[in-house]
Amino acid sequence: MGAVSTEPTNPFAPPSTYRSADAPVPGAATPEPRAPEPRSAEASSPQSRLPEPPVERQVASPQPYRPGYVQLEETTLPGDETGTRGSDASSPAADLPGVLFPQGPTDSWGRPVPERAPRRPRRALSAVWAVPLVVLSLLAGGAGGVLAERVLDSRPSDAALPEVVGAEDVGELRGVAAIAGAVLPSVVSIEVRSAQGEGTGSGFVLREDGYILTNNHVVAAAGDDAEIVVVFADGTEEAAEVVGRTSEYDLAVIKVEREGLTPLLLGDSDGVVVGDPVVAVGAPLGLQGTVTTGIVSALNRPVSAGSATDTAFINAIQTDAAINPGNSGGPLVNADGEVIGINSAIAQTPGAAAATGSIGLGFAIPSNQVRRTAEELIETGRATYPVIGVLLDQRYEGEGVQVLSEAQNGQQPVTPGGPAEKAGIVPGDVIVAIDGRPVTQADELIVAIRAKAPGDAVTLTVRTGDEDRDVRVVLDEFTSD
Hints:
The chain has 481 residues and is of the alpha+beta class.
């Protein structure tokens, strides 16, 4: 198969088909040979010799007529009696049969150059037409400017950043934001100032007539000469005085002379389950109005806080919400904004000299315990707690907790006439469970009992020798100092 040219067709080339002189025309009959015509002496000279014309020249195919071109007739060379010569046989065009040549002026490619129409003389506008046109132009320009300005203002710029959504577009608060918005106005910061130094903590409004709840250890160091100042969410301050406090539960109630406060609702801590979302609010490190979130990570966690002579036993709610020094006394609230605990302690790394901040383990006093104790403190200034009337052996390492076998510091292992003696518990017995919940440490049994109220009944599983038995014990009342 022959090679095919890949060169693009020149659109400006003259519309003709050229062939070499000795190339046969496809589809045409081979011409008969004839004798050459005699030449003149001038034509035979080498200087004037030209290539001899072919025997016959035919058109490969007729070209379509194009406007601006003259269709030439098919012609043959002299001697072909059947052919006809063009209108101008002496013109070189007569030797190119079937070629279209333009009429009139052409450019270097042979394309016709359109003739320009003669210009008409300009006519000056009269004043009758000029004035309305000027006014119309001014009006159109002004309207176009206004329209363009509006279009440009409506089109976003390539460099424009997303606009910030304003508070009016946010709508009603949801989730943690709604909880914080409802709780924060009732949470206060407490500053204790004395000759020994200063300290801060948190608290919240318990009653609208000025009663505020906090931890005992926040105000315990105040003494008689200390000053307690309550800082409200709006920045106002009020002096406060201690109404009552108890180290056994690490709770205290103080009061300010202000009415119309918004109290927080105490929820039901017995309905809390592990995994519930919670929010801690307070003033950690003196940063008032701080909100942190987390979940309830454990329940009934035995926590003993304070000094050896002033120890609180808490059957605590454990949370991973960040609690730091200064959060003490602040509320731990549920998804409904109800107080389910009072933030009281944080876990420390073993061996640490002092608390360095939250490590994800914080503890809160359950709200049901808070409710009973706070009511007692407001009414009497003192709180009560339940006891079973036994001394526990802290050195015992076996299963359960053991009652001392001997008297200690003049106190009997089992209080004579107390609840334990009445239930048949004797020195050396081992208590392995309370209300069906196993206990392995002395603090676990203590906090489980402290979570009850005086007069409540509990069931203890007691082991004497190799025999286990369940006994019912009605808790006695003891009043805190």
